[in-house]
Automatic annotation (TrEMBL), chain A:
<feature type="transmembrane region" description="Helical">
    <location>
        <begin position="131"/>
        <end position="155"/>
    </location>
</feature>
<feature type="transmembrane region" description="Helical">
    <location>
        <begin position="52"/>
        <end position="74"/>
    </location>
</feature>
<keyword id="KW-1133">Transmembrane helix</keyword>
<feature type="transmembrane region" description="Helical">
    <location>
        <begin position="20"/>
        <end position="40"/>
    </location>
</feature>
<protein>
    <submittedName>
        <fullName>ABC transporter permease</fullName>
    </submittedName>
</protein>
<feature type="transmembrane region" description="Helical">
    <location>
        <begin position="94"/>
        <end position="119"/>
    </location>
</feature>
<dbReference type="Pfam" id="PF12679">
    <property type="entry name" value="ABC2_membrane_2"/>
</dbReference>
<keyword id="KW-0472">Membrane</keyword>
<keyword id="KW-0812">Transmembrane</keyword>
TrEMBL record, chain B:
<dbReference type="Pfam" id="PF05573">
    <property type="entry name" value="NosL"/>
</dbReference>
<protein>
    <recommendedName>
        <fullName>Nitrous oxide reduction protein</fullName>
    </recommendedName>
</protein>
<dbReference type="InterPro" id="IPR008719">
    <property type="entry name" value="N2O_reductase_NosL"/>
</dbReference>
<feature type="signal peptide">
    <location>
        <begin position="1"/>
        <end position="19"/>
    </location>
</feature>
<keyword id="KW-0732">Signal</keyword>
Length: 268, 152, 426
């Protein structure tokens, strides 16, 4: 399996797409670390930290989902997966290798991008890179890669995979929030709070955003309505639960993908 | 698809909520770290002067002084208000505004200096007046008739 | 021989005298001091309380330490004139000094540690408190007392005091003509809390990490200038909360890193000018505002939301906004197009606080972009028709070279490139 992971990784890194994404990330991150024109306080939730957070939230899931799912769907479509099945490798082995390869290549991109940010901030003396951001992006890659594998398995072909992942991206980043905001005009404030809490658990992007506020100690940004909720999560048990639920976001999509693929395999 | 199910679910819950209109309202605990007065923005730090309104839609509004409650109470549509409570000055219980006994005196210092406090029973109110040597018992109607608009 | 006897007797009496004097209680010492006299306390611990009713100056010895043995304050100054307390140290008491019905009171360089509350002044006039430092107790602010509290008094001066970890650092109620300058308030509920006050001068104060920096309620005729208001970052925090206030001048203040810079409700005739608002979540919020309020010549830099309101309007002119994207073709320093501060999301947040959760979330960012296009034609609400192209204050960019950041970054970069190339190679 290690051999297969290595092979997959090489494939990933060789793809034009991946190289393009790497260049894009480096350019974008370099740009925002240079754009700082004035000396402003960097404590707390400022526009700078917000824009950095949003950049991660927008770009990382988008590329992990599209590239990851297309790679998996491509394997199945091109018959590469059928060929692999003749080897002594389980379905889960295949999915796991794909997952690890996607995660590793995106972590490499992150290494590259954060390297650029640190180098830049070393020169200009601004825009530190908070540790929370590093962990947040790692979590993001771990979770969305699993979702990407799931999308790829679900899709009929590469194009289908692309559209599926775009839908998931749009729903989790934008639509979910818009629906909730629209509902907020009808329901009471307490109701909106509970719906939001439910959404945080159902939507990986929101989950990670919440995780950022929690681990950076900026829970007050979310507003007083969420006092009890954040108190619950900012305890030892809360942290433990957060890690566990995040792990669930990795295991569930992979498990589902495994189940779908084995069902598909029987049908074919 | 997912979106539709969501929307339907949310609609159903909101309908459900509005359907069960005739329910009894309960006062909730004050959290001094987050609860602020709806009218004057001050944090509700001294609970014995506090008041709250349980809105018909399930929300709560908190007040740091009975004066602020009354300012809200008099200008809010009564249909929106489920039940209004004041804190018993000598105890830990929440009392319905209609049944509470009020003691008023300019010299009683309250967070917004409105000088009105509430008691659960007449005895407790009288006890306060006797021991402090100030204040007189007034009814809720008299409380409502007072001028509550903030004045500098 | 006789001489020796004399000296022995002399020293013995002297010794006895000092011994008995040092055994005097605080109250006895005060009573023994003549009217208008000066009493220097012994360098020892006092665990008692005393009442002052006459003109007197009390000065602390080098190691004088005062503690109350009951709920009462250490000193109660009642119906007195010309009382000065200087250089005293208080520890672990309910309150240090209470002043009632007195005038011409001076408290100078008092130090208080682990106190429930510090000084309370009632119905007095001509009170000056300066150089006082107070550190409160640990815990939630609801379980603490006020630092310096003044009720129904006039002509009060607070200068160069430093109060931390109490409920309200400086509380002034029903006061007339107070001057609050060069004070510091940190880690408390409210820094400066004015209620029913008339005539306020608050200048050069530093207010940090409180729930609210200056809480001005039902007050009029206040000038708040040159204050440094930063990091008010709690659940309901703001730099200034101006509630039901009239004739307010907020000038040359620096608001940075607050949840809301200036939160105002039913504000009348206020001038907010020449302030710096930087990196606040919301710089200014107006609810039920009056048309006579003006927001002019301020610098808005790095705030998430610059101005939001419930729809009530104020005059907004000649401010600098770092997110203004217009041009200045005629080169007169004023932008050629309007700056529209109006944002749908901002307005929603004013009406329903639960929306706070979505602040600057990806969905809201997209919404704001769309908003910017549709609001371009807005001419009434929250519009600055003369936005400045340059800030009035200089924002210095410090050039510093961080070697470690640079080196680690470089190592990460080369490592990543190396791994990539290794991966790509056969």
């Amino acid at each position: 399996m290690a051999l297969f992971i290595k092979l997959e990784w090489k494939q990933m890194l060789r793809s034009r797409w991946m190289q393009l994404v790497a260049v894009l990330f480096v350019v974008v991150f370099a740009a925002i670390s240079l754009i700082q024109q004035m000396a402003l306080p960097t404590d707390g939730f400022t526009r700078q930290t917000a824009s950095f957070l949003n950049l991660l939230l927008f770009l990382l899931p988008l590329f992990t989902l599209t590239i990851g799912s297309m790679s998996v769907a491509g394997d199945i479509e091109s018959g590469w997966y059928a060929l692999l099945k003749t080897y002594p490798m389980s379905i889960f082995g295949f999915l796991w290798s794909k997952y690890v390869a996607i995660v590793l290549s995106f972590l490499l991109i992150l290494l590259l991008a954060f390297g650029v940010v640190l180098t830049m901030s070393g020169i200009t003396g601004h825009m530190q890179l908070p540790v929370v951001f590093i962990f947040l992006s790692i979590f993001m890659v771990l979770i969305f890669s699993a979702l990407a594998v799931f999308c790829g398995v679900l899709a009929k072909n590469r194009l289908h995979a692309l559209s599926l992942s775009l839908v998931i991206w749009a729903v989790s980043l934008l639509l979910f929030s818009y629906i909730l905001m629209a509902l907020g005009t009808i329901v009471s404030g307490t109701m909106l709070k509970w719906l939001t809490i439910v959404m945080i658990h159902l939507n990986p992007a929101e989950w990670l955003r919440f995780g950022y506020f929690m681990f950076s100690g900026q829970t007050t940004v979310l507003g007083p309505a969420f006092y009890d909720f954040t108190e619950f999560y900012t305890s030892f048990f809360g942290y433990f639960l957060f890690i566990m639920l995040s792990a669930l976001w990795v295991i569930t999509p992979l498990g589902l993908a495994n189940w779908i693929l084995s069902k598909k395999g029987r049908d074919v | 698809m997912k979106k539709k199910i969501w929307l339907a679910g949310a609609m159903a819950t909101s309908l459900l909520l509005s359907a069960c209109g005739d329910k009894s309202f309960e006062a909730r605990d004050i959290n001094p770290a987050t609860d602020i007065c709806k009218i004057c923005n001050m944090s509700v730090a001294a609970e014995k002067y506090a008041a709250q309104v349980a809105l018909a839609n399930g929300d709560y509004e908190t007040f740091d002084d009975i004066g602020c409650l009354m300012e809200y109470y008099t200008k809010t549509d009564k249909k929106q208000i489920g039940e209004a409570f004041v804190k018993d000055f000598s105890g830990d219980t929440w009392v319905n505004v209609e049944t509470a006994i009020y003691v008023s005196d300019k010299e009683i210092s309250t967070p917004m200096s409105y000088g009105v406090i509430a008691f659960k029973t007449k005895e407790e109110a009288q006890q306060f007046i006797d021991s402090e040597g100030k204040g007189k018992v007034i009814t809720f109607d008299e409380v409502k008739a007072m001028d509550w608009s903030g004045h500098a | 021989m006789r001489r020796l006897h004399f000296w022995i007797a002399f020293f013995a009496t002297l010794f006895l005298f000092t011994l008995s004097a040092s055994a005097d209680t605080l109250q006895q010492q005060i009573d023994k001091t003549p009217v208008g006299g000066t009493l220097t306390l012994f360098s020892r611990e006092y665990m008692e309380t005393a009442v002052i009713k006459k003109p007197i100056t009390i000065i602390g010895g080098e190691e004088t330490l005062l503690m109350s043995d009951s709920d009462k304050p250490v000193f109660t100054i009642k119906n007195a004139e010309n009382v000065t307390l200087k250089g005293l140290h208080f520890l672990q008491s309910n309150a240090a000094v209470v002043v009632k019905n007195s005038s011409k009171i001076q408290l100078d360089k008092l130090e208080m540690i682990q106190m429930f509350s510090g000084v309370q002044v009632y119905d007095s006039k001509d009170v000056t408190i300066k150089g006082l430092t107070l550190k409160g107790i640990d815990g939630q602010f609801a379980s603490k007392g006020y630092g310096l509290a003044v009720f129904k008094s006039s002509n009060v001066t607070l200068d160069h005091n430093d109060v931390t970890s109490v409920q309200d650092a400086y509380y002034l109620e029903h006061t007339k003509d107070v001057t609050v300058t060069n004070n510091i308030a940190t880690d408390s509920r409210y820094g400066l809390h004015f209620m029913y006050a008339d005539g306020i001068k608050a200048e050069h104060n530093t207010l940090k990490r409180n729930v609210t920096g200056i809480m001005l309620m039902l007050a009029k005729n206040a000038s708040l200038r040159y204050n440094d208001i930063s990091l008010q970052w709690d659940w309901n925090s703001s730099g200034f909360t101006l509630y039901n206030a009239e004739n307010i001048v907020a000038e040359n203040n620096v608001f940075s890193g607050n949840r809301t810079g200036v939160l105002s409700q039913t504000l009348k005739n206020a001038q907010i000018q020449h302030n710096i608002f930087s990196s606040n979540q919301t710089a200014i919020e107006f609810t039920a505002a009056d048309k006579n309020n003006t927001v002019t010549n301020n610098d808005f830099v790095g705030n998430i939301l610059n101005i939001r309101s419930d729809g009530s309007d104020s005059r907004i002119d000649k401010n600098y906004y770092d997110d203004y994207d217009g041009n200045d073709i005629d080169d007169n320093g004023v932008g050629d197009t309007n700056y529209v501060a109006l944002q749908s999301f901002g307005q929603w947040m004013v009406r329903e606080p639960a929306y706070q959760y979505f602040i600057e979330s990806p969905a809201v960012i997209m919404l704001n972009q769309m908003d910017k296009q549709t609001n371009r034609v807005e001419t009434n609400q929250l519009v600055d028709s003369t936005p400045m192209m340059e800030p009035t204050n200089a924002f210095h960019k410090e050039y510093a070279f961080h070697l470690w950041s640079f080196l680690i970054g470089l190592i990460m970069l080369t490592g990543a490139i190396f791994l990539w190339r290794k991966g790509v190679k056969q």
